[in-house]
Amino acid sequence: MNTPQFDLGTFLSTPTAMQNAVRQIPCEMLRPYHNHRFALYTGERLDDMVNSIKENGVLSPIVVQPCENGYEILIGHNRWNASQIAGITTIPAIIKEGLSEQEAEMYVIESNLIQRGFDNLKISEQASVISLRHSEMFSQGKRNDIIHELQMLENPEKITSSQIETKLQSGDSKQNIAENYEMSRASVARLLRIDKLIFELKWFVDDGKIAVNAGVQLSYLSEETQLEIADLSGDYAIDMKKSKLLRESADENGNVKNSDIIRILDNKKVIIEKSKSVKISSDTFSRYFELSAKPKQVAETVENALEMYFAIQT
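RESULT FIELD:
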């Protein structure tokens, strides 16, 4: 594997040099980013990186931020993982201090996009990217700055700010996101829903065990119900029909009874309990209520009358 050569002399001549000093940090002091959503390299790709590090060391510094008892990795999870496998005890790192939660998230997201490309991401990873881009709090200007900095780290001699600004000058509405990634607005909307799934169900979508459209239906369910479905998914296949029935069975909070979940997944007919309404004739209504009476007042009166009636009967 050809690891990009990091030219420290060139990089230190850039405007970001003052805040990007490189330090050697013990691998044991590093932790994965707390919200890391991207799969690490495996197989041949990991083996190539391990061999490269054994022969040449880590040529490009990782990027970290301080955390309790060490540092949290923003960029370079694979280099850190491969270094440990290769028996390397320290790794060059750039320490970022004072980042907001969203700025830290941008470093993680954008670095993976630069290194792997959107089309090579898993569905759940694409969903994470789209969700962040669609966020109203997402700062396009800050994103441009971070992408420029990351490009400088990857190849400081070739990237220019005009290249970044030309590509990313538009905002990040659903329409613009769709155009940027050459997908339909409907695809963007589906990915936004997939990002609302719990981790376990995202894994099933990535693995093809749950279709994207079925995952969209499940995303409307509460986290508690999603967890129950995930626990049962090893015993039952979840197709579009079942996921749609699960959504239709949910209450206003997205909860589905455990018994209904099992019946649906077991492909048995489900009887969904619905509240019943009773009509009162106009003659009866006018006999006991004013025409201006509100539904809530009528319901309370009827309920009290029924309680008294059945109390007398017993």
